[in-house]
Amino acid sequence: MMNAVWSRNAVLYEMNLRQATPEGTLAAAAERLGFLRDLGIDAVWLMPHYPIGEVGRKGSLGSYYSIRDYRAVDPELGTLADFDAFVRRAHALGMKVLIDWVANHTSRDARWLAECPADWYERDASGRPVVPNGWDDTAKLDYTNRAVWQGQIDAMRFWLAEHGVDGFRCDMAMLVPIEFWQEAARRLRAVKPDLFLLAEAEEDYLFDRAFDASYAWRLYHLMNDVAQQKCRVDRIREYLYADRKHVPAWALRLMFTSNHDENSWSGSEFVRLGPAVRVMTALTFLLPQSLPLVYTGQEFGYDHSFAFFDRDPLPACEPNETTEFYRRLIALRHDAPALASGERGGSFVEIRNNAEDCLLTFVRETPENRVVALLNVSPYEVHADFDTGIYAGGYADALTGERVQLCSHVDERMPGWSFRILTRPM
What we know:
The chain is of the alpha/beta class. The protein folds into 2 domains: 5-343, TIM Barrel (Alpha-Beta Barrel); 348-425, Golgi alpha-mannosidase II (Immunoglobulin-like, Sandwich), CATH 2.60.40. Helix content is 29%, strand content 21%. It has 12 helices and 18 strands. It has helices at 26-30, 33-39, 80-92, 111-115, 146-162, 178-191, 217-227, 234-246, 260-266, 269-273, 277-286, 321-335; strands at residues 12-15, 43-46, 96-101, 105-107, 138-140, 167-170, 196-199, 213-215, 252-255, 290-295, 347-350, 359-365, 369-376, 382-387, 393-397, 403-406, 409-414, 419-425. Strands 1-2-3-6-7-8-9-10 form an 8-stranded parallel barrel. Strands 11-12-13-18-15-16 form a 6-stranded antiparallel β-sheet, with no helix packed on it. A two-stranded antiparallel sheet has the order 4-5. α7 packs antiparallel against α8 (234-246). The chain is globular, with a radius of gyration of 22 Å. The mean pLDDT is 97.
């Protein structure tokens, strides 16, 4: 299996439609696409845009993930015509559109509950639909019933074939049988060969004839732990080597410092990562197999936890230093073949150093390009002492554009959480 070509050096943007604009609509969100494309974003993942259940509704607007109708648009966000206009605008700008797919459950007043046989849902002893995982505004679908498979695939095909989406981010994918995802992937790729499927899960088996990418949850938690000094960077190093042994070379891992769940329930990246936020963000662009993610507001350094069930819009923001930081990282991702993900990406070779519990120093390289990353992933000033060997020479600093010389022997002090990214053609 090979990923769609566009995904191999792509950067994904998660758009929280409810909060991305003061209006909270698809039409207003479409007006933001030009800015995102100028930033360098390649694909936009829309959080669920479907009508939300009324039964057990949380807050004033309910959970995005309590879906009443898989083939409609939430009136709060606009109309189906507005959705189509959003997709057309994104495509005109050269961007892909992924939509959120919630296959495990529906709302407790979903159309399927009223229109489909009772055995489409798991039932308790009293005949009521089972509540999955304590999400008491949802009802669990029964995947022992192949009619549910057909209903899901038909609904996905509706958005793919009739409304032009490019793929799906699949919510809690590990709660649904892998055999379903395999069949869905096979049948939907017959409709759109370059379909892209992202699993919100980390299980390795999801790459078996199903998904292109999955979440790097373990890395995300390790980055938080290192930033909070619960462990050292050698744990990240161990993760990287272990992960390479368990997944195919073409598999992508979504790497992020924030997303809608973590932002709302665990705090913004500034709360969790503190002064480590930039070095951890850089890692998500530099590590092998990465599909970097930018979440709504991160492009402005917006330090806020969005309300999950109510309107809490991103205020008007002007491009700033954080915007430029992301712009340069994204440009590096696009311009450096060594940072591509999958089988065409650059090799990952560590430069051994004298403080491996603090420093992560490595090279990504292809015949066309080399990237050298020198990172102090600790709060301590470190006296760095290491040899660069064949990697010595002239480079450009990826974030400043300045010409720099990487000496064959590095002997310098690196402030806490500091880093340099050097790049050159081969």
